[in-house]
Please model this.
Amino acid sequence: MNNLDHIVIAATSLEQGVDYVHSMLDVEIPQGGVHQTMGTHNHVMQLGNDAYLEVIAINPDVPAPSHPRWFGLDSGRIRDAIQQQPRLLTWVMNTSDIHQLVEAAGFDLGVPTALSRDNLEWEIALPGDGRLLADGMLPYCIQWHSNPHPSQGMTDMNCLLQSLTIHHNRPRWMEDRLDAIDASHLVDVEALPDSETAYMSANIDTPNGPVTLT
Model:
């Protein structure tokens, strides 16, 4: 069975992202690491049930990669959006056989790409142009090749992800896509008027009560 791996908050800088998480969840999200291949870096923390929260930003201290960065971070539209405030950009699904998942999906999830850092090894399906999938509403797909799940090594800040909801003006289309990759049990889908732009909301229990990130 596929599982929700993590949710991704994008920021113009890690400092901006860390400050945003503190303002919303009242916790100091710990430093993660550097993605040398992708030209990004992050902060991470547990969210329970082998899931975690990632704050990601372009790393100004490393050269830009020769290929597009992941999560649409080279997109001018996304850069403009997160300039104002960090945002819940997308989510990532953990699967046990990423090659089979990509082949059976019926639509383009990207190319499984092997990456590693320290003692972590994984494959993640990356679109060739670095774009988000369905503007971030569909997940990037990952398969970890290291045990235990990396969230077990992250700091527990007493925050628990209760639900992730996709708000979309084509809910049936979204549900069909989620069904095709065995992901419909991981998120809720709520209908939006045609005039509104799709977005996600994550409901998180914190030491100070429930909080919704968007």
